[in-house]
Please model this.
Amino acid sequence: MTAAFRLFVFVAATLFFALPATSQQTAPEGDMVLVADRVYVTPDNILIAEGQVEALQGDVRLRAKKIEYDGSSDIIKVTGPIHFQQSDYVRIVASYAELDKDFRTAVLKSARLVMNEHVQMASVELHRVEGRYNVLHKTSVSSCQVCDNGKPPLWQIRARRVVHDQEERQVYFDHAQLRVLDVPVFYFPQLRMPDPTLKRANGFLIPELRQNSQLGFGIKIPYFLTLGDHKDLLLTPYLSEHSTTLEFRYRQAFRNGRMQWEGAVSDDSFYPSQPRYYLFADGAFDLKRDYKLTFNVQTVSDRAYLQDYNYSDEDRLTSDIALRRSRRDENTRIALYHYKSLRASDDNDTLPSWVGIAETERRYFPKIIGGEARMTLQLRGQYRTSDLDTDGGDIDTDTDGRDAVGATAAMWWRRNWTLNNGLRTGITGELAADTYYTDQDAVYQGTESQITPTVAAHFRYPMSKLGADGSTYVIEPLAQISYSGGDTLNIANDESSRVEFDEGNLLALSRFPSTDRRERGAVGAVGMNWARYDPNGWQAHLSFGQVYHQSPHPDFSLTSGLSGTTSDFLMAGQITTQNGLQLMARGLWDGTTGFNKASARAGWTNKKLWLDASYIWLRADAQEDRTQNLSEWVLDTRYRMSRHWTASADWRFDAAAGESAEAGIGFEYRNECVKIGLSVSRNFVNSATVRPSTDIGLTVALLGFSVNAKDKSYNRTCSANAG
Model:
């Protein structure tokens, strides 16, 4: 058995050194076991193990018909069929092998090497050179399922010679042919590809063919550059009939954060006298004392560029830089924002394009009075590039060049009690001081200040019941009464012109989104929450509510649902089932003419289907600069029709106008070695800056090398290879 043990050391170690570098770093440890029908030494001092020879060590397994070790020449001969396996990463099958004593040189006959359970290399002869290179002669390489039925794989690369450099983890091909169903398609004198273990490597990525009704036929050829371990650059030339474009993406990771920059530069026939471009960037960094620095950049050369090249549907761009800190009892933010509208109806000079804000909120738990207290300090400002102090005659009635600065200091306190009968009640108090300075406005020029005291009491009475079927029912009536003093500031309504009334702010002290407007006088709110939790996994929630004002607030618009002394009736519901279906809906019903605002969303996710559908309805509201009703459907779905075929579709329908805004459909075929995608999309929008266009895209990816193909649900089997 000592001789057998020595034999296994030679064989296992030799074949182990033939593995790629990543496998060498995890060499198996522990006892070695050799099992064979016969083990003996010949008179010529040759140790032989034969029969069903199997050697095991850790996750290494070697099976062969016969193994010979010649001590005089230090040559190991292995007679096959030979099966060698290291975990699930490398499998080698050969008919015959000779190995030297240094484990750095080997010759394998009729060898087939399978890497990462995916890429197969079959060759007449495999040479192991200098402990680093695997050299294969007359080789066929493919990631497709190969069966013993005589049929060729879907695709393969045939080469006179293939060199696998395990240190660089690269595969080099000499005189390579790409064959599809054994028909030569492309010839490459030299070809380099990464082996399946390399996550990042320099080289070309999957090209994409595109047909656009405006740009014409074109091709995208991406090239990936690694710039060290922590950064990379992707360059994508896009050549079409009417445009020459260079797309790019730069990424870098740091010890304390990351950033990404992406964009494109184009020379096209639409704007022949100037280059067109866009640049999007974002980043986040962790600083000392729990601070986080984030930035976001969005800029474009003209209003139509993003739509013309199908880069983004954004019609308002936001750039910002912010310093934040969030702790258990603190939330601090210092930020500067820049906004740019791409809508043809907007004039960026008259919009508040620059907005700055500095705020902090601290939380305390005073022992003398109990409860929870919060202190808020806020400073904010907005700037327009226009110098006009009146309305210049555009579509809105706002002063074109108005600039403003506001400051707020507030103290807030709340204490809750739960009574013996289950009633939960509490009181809330707040004292807020607001100061605003308005400049370059003929109507609101100057400084306005106000102190607003607020007191409120709220009540909740949650009740639960266990049904006969094991379901749990919860019902919770709730109510609040509050009073706020002071008067509305005589300033322009720049920050609170769009109000959202929902179940989240039903019991808020003020439902305006900012402090330039506050609710005044006596205000009452009532509501009801209901929920059902089924033991089988599905659940349902319903919420209802209404708000009552002592006197109407003029800055609540019609569709806010809060105009008048009695608000619209708030209704909201949600259903979640155990099979992945989610339904959500919310609406504001005025009790007479119908809904002023409504939205609904449906989502369904399972093994075959992903679906997201939404609907929104907004009544025309002059106070929100909306002259017509807004009604829109949006659908986005993906369905796996069979093992290899997947269909996708997206659609945006303007129900108020009775016409589609966008539509698209796509099909994808995928198996273990190839992915083919075909997509067709149409943009129907026609405006002063955006023209209708149709876009067709085709991609073909050979899986197994640099493309991730770990999902085995697409793999074919030899019993059903045609599937």
Summary: The domain at 2-198 is CATH 2.60.450.10 (lipopolysaccharide transport protein A fold). The mean pLDDT is 89. The first strand starts at residue 33 and ends at 35. The radius of gyration is 35 Å.
